[in-house]
Structure formats: structure tokens, C-alpha cells
Amino acid sequence: MAFHALQAALAAMGVERSLDSLVTRSGEAFWAPWSETADVETMRYTRMMSTLFRATDQAKVRLEIGAGDEPESAVAVLRKHTAAGRLVLAPVFSGGRFGVIESVDSDGVARAVGPDQVEPGDVDLSRGWSGAFPAYPPVKCLYGAVRRGRQVKPARIPVPDLAGILFVPLGDDIEINGVQFGIEAVRGATQAVRGGAAVRDVTSLERLLVTFEQAEFGFGCAERWLGSKEASHLWDAPDLARLARSMRAACGELAERLWDSSGTASAGALGRAVTGRKSVVFELPADLDREPPGQVVELPRGRGVVVDTRGRRAALGRLADVVDRAALAFAKEVDSVGALTR
Question: Which residues lie closer than 8 Å to 177 by C-beta, 6 or more apart?
Fold first, then answer.
């Protein structure tokens, strides 16, 4: 959501950058976390560098971030920024979702647009808010002020010069290499699927969903950007778009096999889904009036039932192999393009 807000703020400032461009060229598209042990919140927020700063760098704007312990002091800072004509990104909507603040009055009421309101509306900031930028843990009263001008690179967060192309490794450390980091994470998650972690416990399931859903979103952005005029310098490498599409589709299918929402409509729909699909977890209807056909698990997204059979596990494993091959093919093509563009 921070990238959606950044794209909206840039558009309001007359800087045209597509969301796909910002996500792909910053490396956010390839930030796919995986850990056998870390909690899900850590997986969601922890990364080696802020992709959001990369995005602002390539958009030629400056992002100043800050936070306040008390809402009153944070609101005062926001008021100064907006009075100076700067737009502010902040997670002031429900669920810590980001919006763009254009003004703040003396009572702490902001005029903002965001996922809950596409036209400017009032948001009361007097009680505070909280959220997280990429590479930063969730904090109270977080904000980022966007202004024109050369990007000031924050201390201890390396922001390389992407020179209009992401697909070149940035060094020997795969943890900060963008594409390679994402590929290694996805491959680690596919290995966990093949090893049975997908249905071993709820924590493993949630970790895997975080990884494959992020990969599906990111490679979808990469696929669209690679086919756009903004990526015309890469049109001589058409396989990149095709391979990104393969990764997006395979990761999306694997995520759906791990958590299938096709059974939510009714008990009958759940029965048909369980009978006809190869997924291992089906989201339960809210009004289910019969015994679920397996172990029930609870995740923040809802309640699901695990239908654990040898055939379903085998189908998951085969799909994990497809994802693994697609990841290797994409990484190989990235190395090929990188060698040509250095």
C-alpha cells in the first residue's frame, strides 16, 4: 500500500510513474520473503534495504520519513509539511493501509485520499495511527513527506543507482541483490512445500502464503512493466516478460492450492471444492452447519479446513517443481540480460 500511495502522490505532483514501474525497478517486485523459523510479521516487514527509497530515487523525488511518540507532536510536523506544499504518505486508514495527506487543520483532521476514500475526505489523526514502510518495523505515527528535488539517501540504507534497469546483480551478497534474493526465497519455500511443511502446522502454512502471494503480486508487476513503453530498453529480451508471466501464474496457482477460497459460498460449494480440486486447505463458509471434512485451522484471513491426502500432497509437490523450474529459468535469463547490459 505504501507504493500505491507513492504513485498517487507522484501523480498529484505531475510525476508520471506507473505502479508497475515503481514496484519492479525498486526491487519490491522481487522481495519474496521466506523463513523456516521467523514469525510472519517479521517476514512481512524485514528486508535488507528499503525498496521504497529506491522507488523515490528513480522518480527523482525526496522522501523524508519520521514518526512521533505522541499524536499531537506528529500532527504538528505533518501540518508543517503540508503547509509547505508537500504531500505526506501515512498509514492512516483501516488496517494500517497508506493514504496521501494533502492538508491538516488545527484540530488534527487531515484531508486525505486512500483505499477507503478515492476522493479527498476527512481523517481524524488526533488518536494516532501506526504502520510500517518497507524495511522498517511498525511504529506509531509513521509518515513520509514527499518533496521534489534530488533524493537524499538515508544513512545505513544503500540505494544503488539502477540506471534504468533492475536486472543486474548488485554485488555478491544475495540478501541485497533484489532479483536473486526473491528467487532464492521462492525456491526455499518450494522446498518446504515438497517437505510437507505446507500442512504440518498453521504457522508454516501462513509463512508459505506470505511468500507465494508476494511473489505472485511482484512478478505480475514485472510482467506488466516489461511489456510497457517504460521498459522499451528491454524489448530486445522478450523472454523476460514471458518468464515473469510464468512465475506469476505458477506462484498464484500454488498460493491458491495452499488456501482455496472456492468453498466459501456454502456448505455445498465447500463439498464440491473438496471433491473436485487438488488444494489442501479450503476456506470455510461462515455458516457451515455440518462437521468439516478435516482439521480446522485459523489464520488472520479466516477459518479453513485441511484436507490432507497423499494425492493432494503429491499435486502440491508437482506444482512446487513447476515454480522452482520457472524461478531458475527467470534467474538464468536475468543473468543473460545483465551480462549484455553491463
Answer: 169, 170, 171
Could you please report the per-residue DSSP string of 99-129? EEEEEE-TTSEEEEEETTEEEEEEEE-TT--
Q: How confident is the model at residue 178 (pLDDT cuts 50, 70, 90)?
A: low
Closest-CA residue to 306 (of 316, 317, 296, 291)? 296
Type of residue at 254: L
- Between CA 172 and CA 15, with CA 44 as vertex, the angle to 5 degrees is 80
> What digits encode the pLDDT tens for the residues 221-265?
999 998 888 888 777 777 888 999 999 999 999 999 999 998 888
Q: Which of 52, 54, 34, 29 is nearest to 44 (CA)?
A: 34
The DSSP bridge partners found for residue 179 are: none
Stretch 188-205: mean pLDDT, rounded? 88
The answer on pLDDT for 301 being more than 80 is: yes
Q: Which three cell numbers stand for residue 322?
A: 513447476
Whole-number Å distance between alpha carbons of 278 and 256: 10
Q: What is the dihedral angle through the alpha carbons of 255, 230, 329, 158, rounded to the nearest 10 degrees?
A: -80
Distances (CA, A) of 77 to 71, 124, 128, 143, 219: 10, 15, 13, 10, 37
Count of Cβ atoms closer than 10 Å to residue 249 Cβ: 17
- CA 176/CA 158 separation, integer angstroms: 9
pLDDT at 153: 46
User: How many helices and strands, by DSSP H and E, does the chain display?
Assistant: 10, 11
Determine how β-strand 87-93 pairs with β-strand 97-104: antiparallel
Alpha-carbon torsion (8, 14, 20, 21), positive or negative: negative
Judge whether 199 and 340 are in contact, CB under 8 Å.
no
pTM for the predicted model, two decimal places: 0.84
CA distance 221 to 240: 12
* DSSP-based three-state secondary structure for 162: coil
What is the reported pLDDT for 334? 80
Name the pairing type of β-strands 139-140 and 302-306: unpaired
**Closest among 26, 7, 29 to 18, alpha carbons compared:** 7
Res 149 pLDDT > 70:
no
